[in-house]
Amino acid sequence: MFWYVTAHNLRHGIIRAPRVLVAGVLEFHWAVPVTWYLSIVMLIATRFWDYWQTLL
């Protein structure tokens, strides 16, 4: 939610930033949450890797 509130604030000029940065954030608004979720999934997968192997 933090990321989307920040993107909303950038879009409406509440947070001042260069136009290039705002355009990049608005175009790739999905990149930060996806990276965050993938990082969490990878941490879980590596932590329980031994368990996952026993299921195969």
Produce the secondary structure layout:
Elements: H1 2-11, H2 19-27, H3 31-47, H4 49-55
- Beta-strand content bin: under 5%
The proportion of residues forming helix, as a percent range, comes to over 70%
Per DSSP E runs of 2 or more residues, the count of β-strands stands at 0
H/E element order: HHHH
Number of contiguous helices? 4
Radius of gyration: 17 Å
Q: What is the straight-line distance between the termini? A: 36 Å
Shape: rod-shaped
Main sheet: strands, sense, barrel = none
Question: Helices and strands: which structural class?
Answer: mainly alpha
Low-confidence stretches: none
The averaged pLDDT comes out at 92
Write up what this structure looks like.
The protein has about 55 residues and is an all-alpha fold. It is built from four helices and no strands. It is rod-shaped and about 50 Å long.
